[in-house]
Amino acid sequence: MVDLGASSSRFGPTANLQSAARYRGELAQGALRLNRFLIHISQRENREAYLIDEEAAMQAWGLAPSERELVRHRDYAGLLLAGVNIYAIAKSGYVFGATLLEIGAAMRGQSTKEFLAEKGRG
Questions:
Q1: 99 in a domain, yes or no?
Q2: Per the domain annotation, does 111 fall within a domain?
Q3: What are phi and psi of 38, to 5 degrees?
Q4: What is the number of structural domains in the chain?
Q5: What gap in Å lies between CA 94 and CA 50, rounded to an integer?
Q6: Confidence class for position 4, pLDDT limits 50, 70, 90
Q7: Mean pLDDT of all residues in 32-45
Q8: Looking at the whole model, is its pTM more than 0.85?
Q9: Which structural domain, as residue segments, surrounds residue 83?
């Protein structure tokens, strides 16, 4: 067995990322209802009902006021920090009319144009 030292793992050196959410079991467990809600509304028949009355749909699922705020404001970074799975966030983009690029840009506090320019594709 190779000793990689304290600052490395078998996947390479560890990274210290600002504003990065470590997706852990307890974080995910706390967002279980919100994860299920976002997956639920990504299905066509549920999406249509959600878009007719967003507030009623969130109330029917018993979302907490803080969870409703995250959904209302399409706060993708906040959803991730609250424990929502990145795949549920990606699926919700379809419901909210956002592409993956737009979600990525929003999570960084940038416009899509700024995000693409920074990535060398704008």
A1: no
A2: no
A3: -65, -40
A4: 1
A5: 13
A6: very low
A7: 95
A8: no
A9: 22-94
User: Residue 5 falls within a domain, yes or no?
Assistant: no
Residue 75 and residue 90: Cα distance in Å, rounded?
A: 12
In SS3 terms, the chain reads as CCCCCCCEECCEECCCCCCCCCCCHHHHHHCHHHHHHHHHHCCHHHHHHHHHCHHHHHHHCCCCHHHHHHHHCCCHHHHHHCCCCHHHHHHHHHHHCCCHHHHHHHHCCCCHHHHHHHCCCC
User: How many residues are there in the chain?
Assistant: 122
The 10 Å Cβ neighbour count of residue 91 is: 17
The per-residue pLDDT for 12 is 56
Q: Which residue did the predictor score with more confidence, 40 or 20?
A: 40
| pLDDT score of 32 more than 90 | yes
Q: pLDDT tens, 59-107? A: 999 999 999 999 999 999 999 999 999 999 999 999 999 999 999 999 8
| CATH code, 31 | 1.10.700.10
| Inside any domain, residue 100 | no
